[in-house]
Structures are given as C-alpha cells and as structure tokens.
Write the structure tokens for this entry.
Amino acid sequence: MRSVELFAGGGGLALGTHLAGFSTEVVAEWNSWCCDTLRENRDTGYPLAHGMTVREGDVREVDWSGLQGRIDLVSGGPPCQPFSAGGQAKAHGDSRDMFPATAEVIRQIQPKAFIIENVRGLTRARFAPYFEYIQARLAYPNIRPRPDESWTDHYSRLTRRSRSVDEASHYNVTATLVNAADYGVPQQRWRVFLVGFRSDIDSLWAFPPATHSKELLRIEKQVTGRYWERHGVAPADRPESSVRRPIAEVPSGLKPWRTVRDAIGEMPPPTLDASERYLNHVLQPGARSYPGHTGSPIDEPAKALKAGVHGVPGGENMLRNPDGSIRYFTVREAARLQTFPDRYALHGPWSEAMRQLGNAVPALLAQAVASSVHEHLALNEVRSYLTHDSHLGAESAAPSNEVAA
C-alpha cells in the first residue's frame, strides 16, 4: 500500500508506517536539517527510506492533486507549538497551525485512510471547541472554508451540512490519547492520534490495545526482582522502595514498561570521539540540572524528550544515574528512546539532531497504529473482493430465459 507523509520531521512516523507495510512515496518537510536526515538515509541505502521522494518546503505549496486515487494513507504530525504546554498555546491564532493545510491535502488526495498525531495539549479543555472543529474539518475535507470565514462559522456550517454530504466524500474519525510507554517505548510520551477511514471503507476499527504495563514493571522491581536480575544489578545496589502497594491485577499477555536502562544499558559510555559501532554516539558536555528539569532516571521510562521549548534542548534530555550524576543523552541514546533503528542516521549538530528527535513520533508507536490501519484496509479489500466475487457467482447461476436449441 502507498502512503505520503506530511510534516515528516526526522522521520519517526514515516519509519513506523514503512515498518507497517506502507511504501512511503513522498515526504514533505520544511526544515532543511530534517530533509537532510531523510535524504541521507535514502541515499545511503537505508531500506526504510528506499525510494522516498523528499519535498522540502511548505506543504501548502505542493500540488498533491496528481496523487488523487493513488494513495492509501496520508500520515503526518502538524507542528505542535500551537497546542504545546511549553509553547504560546494560541491554537488557530498561531501561524504554525497546520491542521487546515492537512485537511486540504486530504481533500486533494482522497486517501483511503489518514493518521494524524499531535501533542496531548491539543486535548486540553481550553482547546475543546477547536479540537472538535479539527475533527470535523478532517472528517469533511471537501467542505472548504469560504474566503475570510472564521473557523467558528466554518464549524457551524460543517455541522449543518455534514449529514447531506455524499457518502464517499467524508471520513469516519477516531481520536485517541495514548502514552507511548504502554506500547513498548522506553519513554513516557503522550500523544493524541486522529485516525480516519474514508466512508466507503468499513468503519468498524478500534485503536490497538496497549502491550506494556506500568504495574508489571513495578512488580518486577519491587516484588519479584526480575528487572534487577535481568540487568545484573546486585541486591545491595537496588533502590529501597518507599511505597509498598498491593499487587494489582495485570491483564495476561502484557509486558513490563521498558526503561532507559532497557533501551541503552548495553551501550558503552559515550566519549568525545565518535563510536565505531554506534552512529551519533558522542558525548555532549555541559549537562546541568535545574528546577523542574532533573533528567530521566535510568530505571524508569524516560521523560518525554523535548525539542527545545525549555532551552535547546531541555533538562529532560539528560540521563540521571542512581548515584545522582547526570549527563546529556547522546543522539543515538535519544534515538533509542524514540525507538529509531540503530542504522538510521540523524543529520546535523547535536542540538538540531535532538530537536528532530524531540519532535518525532516514536517509531514503534507509529508502527503499532499504522499496522492496525494497514490490516484494516487489507481486510476491507478482501471483503470487497469476496462480495464482488459472490455477486458475480450469483449472476452466473441465475436461471436463463433462453430456450435450448
């Protein structure tokens, strides 16, 4: 199945959709460092970037109409600054709000499905009316705003006209807020996903269930000790828990949350020299702790990596060891926390590479969502084929009015 990616950044969402079975035909991104990362991986033969056309620039200036009817999935993460708790939170009043542009691309391409993600801040109460408008705009992309029409007036018109719109011209949209740690990402990173299926596609789809458990990690550390045994931490070096809660029931089949140690524990300590084994694994000096930004404990999932709103980047982009010492994550360590493959290179100096990672969707989370969408589209194709084949069979078996000679 074919896909295109908007606001691709360093490629986290595109990596996930490619791992899920979509061939990423075109990626659009305005930031030159991000585009260099995408092109570098494509040109050096990294398989998940193979054949990718990188369009550097504003997605609003790209003519997507030539892809209409040829693309199965549109994915993308519009800039989060209009809704981020660390940004100015101006929503529709921020020139970086690209949800209208996203809806316009969907209108031009008319894909079978879309996956759009953004920060948890989008679901804040103050943004509730605009969040509802975003969902309506994505659901009915063919109902475009009139010149100089406010979003509130457009939303009112969308609400009034949506029931009379042609069945094939709208999307059934599901909005879901998830923590990436619940899907095997060694990082507590909340994201809201807007997943839509064109109305001629079976709409009986649900967001994939969690695969990992916070409670199971606590049990393995405080009760069974399996976590410490797995990492070879001696009993004397294990922290004393200040809270001993009863064991909660954990659904079968789940795995424990993954921690920073799970992600980078076997990597050698970084030095100022480039590593021969690991890409982008170079020590960045100068880490310091300050109130509210004390780094990520090694035996917990990392705090959400930041892209620069609290400094470039913020204190969340530090490792905190059991003895209290801190240092910055290397680019490769941060890439592992975002579940990027080790062979995927990040282009640019440390601050720019970390910005790309801080803005990214964890590849593993993207894969989980995209795999579910891919499976749903594939099953829909099978059902359509079987229904069509059954219809043809019924026609051939119908009684004939002709008289045999």
About this structure: The first helix runs from residue 12 to 19.
